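Key idea: predict the complex, not the pieces.
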Amino acid sequence: MTKKKIAYLGISLLFPGVANSMHIAEGFLPVSWCMGWWIVYLAVLVAGFSRLKTTIEAHPNAKLLFAAVGAYVFILSSLKLPSIAGSSSHLTGIALGALLFGASSMSVIGLIVLLFQALLLAHGGLTTLGANGFSMAVCGAFSAVWAYRFLKGVKAPQWLAVGGASFVSNLVIYSCTSAQLAAAFADSTATFGSNLIRFLSIFVVTQLPLAVIEAIFTVLAFRYIQRTSKAEIEQLNPNLYETKNNHIPA
Amino acid sequence: MKRKTIIYLLSGCLLVLLIQFFATKLFPGFIGADDQSVELIKQIAPKYQPWANHLLEFDQPWAEPVLFALQAIIGLSVISYFIWKQSKKKV
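Result:
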């Protein structure tokens, strides 16, 4: 291993803190909402499995790359970083895999990570996994792909498009969680709008600097993968090597 | 796998464990955004009772950072293997 490669590994370990729960805690979402989010997430999960199976069958060499982007999510979501206003939160790492393998494929990674945390770490939860999976692995992944498309569309350089996609993805995940909680606890005294502002003021303010850090990590990881796995990327998504953006998997 | 790679991997794992432990001591007052959201739910809906509990919970204070470090180490191991395979491919 060269010093540069060790640096890539080490850089993701520079700022960790104590990890805590991810998104919505077990039992903290009414039953009807839990079921609703599970149904929506399962639908995307079926599509994600199907897409991933097709991709891996067509490009068996990409298996290890998929494992690596999954591991990237595993590492980043395990780190809880201190942020502004005395609060702390997580990175997610969803954008990298979404750009390489397509957004729906990340629902599979999301399931693995959230199941691991719910079962072994008592964080998040099985009842809220549908809602958490939808915000992290569906909204986060699709927003990353759309942000990348937009930035490439306005002729942004690739590092900016990748970093921007990661930044947007991170903020969208926590905005989605805020909206899920705001909707679940809206009633005559606490409207959806007022709840949303209160939840956003917790999540998004904390998340802003962390989203910048995640964007830096994602750009570094993407550049490394681009340099070392050119053949796999050219098979999966050749336009990630081109300046014009005709096709990004979604 | 080369001996040097194994040493790097083990050092990385040890580093993750150490940093997780020290971070607990360095930022004790930092409240998780998720915990803040639970508090906010209690304010918005004071009568709401969580209807499910975790299947597995550890009471020991050291269990949480260790388990999250385990998660990071699993990820780190896969990435190390990926990097090792990529470096082997180029040779």
